[in-house]
Amino acid sequence: MSHYDTLGVSNDASPEEIKKAYRKKARQLHPDVNPSEDAAEEFKRVTLAYEVLSDPEKRRNYDTTGDEQGRAGYPGGGGYPGGGFSGFGGFEDLLNMFTGGAAGARGPASRMRQGQDDLITVSISLQDAVFGVEKTIERRSAVTCKSCNGEGTAEGTQPETCTTCSGHGFMQRRVQSILGTVMQQVECPDCHGYGTVIKTPCPECHGQGRVREDVPLTFNVPAGVHDQARIRLRGKGEAGLYGGPNGDLYVDLNVKRDKYFSREGDNLVTTVNIPMVAAALGTTIPLNTFDGDQEVAIPAGTQSGDVITLNGLGATVLGTERRGDLLVRIQVVTPTDMTEEQRELLRQFAALRGESLTEGSQVKHRGGLFSRLKDQFK
């Protein structure tokens, strides 16, 4: 397929028609719009076609020789005319294939470069981590210059063919080696290997094709993420250079501490203070959870450290619709600021139960399984 067919224009298309066709194709195939691998390869072909057909000299060379890079034919068996450059052939040609000479020459480098990946940290609440959330933030990043559409050139201009290397992007020089005189390929010092120079850069981006500015970003945090989780947003990193694809954005999540709840695996944990009498007699208390108010039954005789489980009210299990449990840990509160009347009532209560205020019972340490089995045979 020819470059003209790639852009969908005729062989006699004007520069304006070529540019319009390229922009239309580029929008359709850009990774932000079309993430498929086939689109990425087609995007490269479209960009190469535009680079060649938008440059008058490369276009003439392409029409004449059919070279995909738009390079001119190499006179004198691959040498370049003028300025210390000369033709060469025979055995020296063979050597040049291995030393970077014209016989194995590469074309000029593309200015297109993929944008750099970026990394940011975003804080979310524990509740957002449990249920997931759509976040919208602003961040500073490199974006495509709107003034030149990422081309780096001032309005009405385009990159010009480098006169130093005649658009090849590289030059050759003679060097002496143990094999004799060979030609060494070096990057052109004026165009830096691109084959073109931007003589009139865009005043907004100074020829870079990108500017840095604050840009809004909306993304989804999946339900069930843990603290320090990292999310990858493809194509949301820095804009590529000169029409190249964007890099990726990595988001590190910082889950903030909650006032009432903590997380253990996929379970949520909270602690509830229960008055001594309520713990002894049993009661029902309201509990504010991430799922709204719940009624929690406290059995009679509840002790400090007891755990009441509310099934399915914990954190979402990442990648599923299942949820862990909410563990309610009980802390029985012993009164400390009692009146003498209240103290007397407690003493009477202890007497009714036959309890001595000077006695306690030490809990025997049971040890491990081996120790308990050993005790059975004593």
Automatic annotation (TrEMBL):
Binding residues annotated for Zn(2+) 2, in chain numbering: 162, 165, 188, 191
Annotated stretches, region: Disordered: 57-78
Spans of repeat CXXCXGXG motif: 145-152, 162-169, 188-195, 202-209
Keyword Chaperone: yes
Ranges of residues in domain J: 2-66
Coiled-coil residues: none
UniProt domain CR-type: residue ranges: 132-214
Zinc finger regions, CR-type: 132-214
Cofactor(s) demanded: Zn(2+)
GO molecular function, one term: heat shock protein binding
A GO biological-process term: DNA replication
One matching Pfam family: DnaJ_C
Transmembrane segments: none
Residues reported to bind Zn(2+) 1: 145, 148, 202, 205
Matches recorded under SMART domains: DnaJ
Keywords: Chaperone, Cytoplasm, DNA replication, Metal-binding, Repeat, Stress response, Zinc, Zinc-finger
Domain observations: The J domain is necessary and sufficient to stimulate DnaK ATPase activity. Zinc center 1 plays an important role in the autonomous, DnaK-independent chaperone activity of DnaJ. Zinc center 2 is essential for interaction with DnaK and for DnaJ activity.
Family designation: Belongs to the DnaJ family.
Record PANTHER family: CHAPERONE PROTEIN DNAJ, DNAJ HOMOLOG 1, MITOCHONDRIAL-RELATED
Subunit structure: Homodimer.
Name used for this protein in its record: Chaperone protein DnaJ
Species: Rothia mucilaginosa
Taxonomic lineage from the root: Bacteria, Bacillati, Actinomycetota, Actinomycetes, Micrococcales
Gene name of the encoded protein: dnaJ
